[in-house]
Design a protein that fits this description.
By secondary structure, this protein is an alpha+beta fold. About 30% of the residues lie in helices and about 30% in strands. The chain is globular, with a radius of gyration of 13 Å. The N and C termini lie close together (about 5 Å).
Amino acid sequence: MKGIGIDIVEVKRFHGVSNRFLKRVFTEEEIKYCRKSAAAELHFAARFAAKEAVIKATTDRKIAMKDICVKNRKNGAPEVFVRGRRQKFFISISHTKTLAVAVVVLY
């Protein structure tokens, strides 16, 4: 293990968030995925927490949020990709109606 990061986010921060913010933080693929859900704010909050956890795990504060992409495998498990890096991550994401949390391990 080379690093670990955790982040927790209040879902209400993503109610009515602007398109400008979404486009600055999330990839088009992430935006499309989150908006497919009736509770898009849960998915945006969870992915935001994941991105913050990735930055904490790498200890590289210069990584742009949009360079981090959280996708789901066919089985539904999340996975993380960081543009321009070959680092590998384990990730776990969870949420309730009010909170989203993510833990990332860099290995």
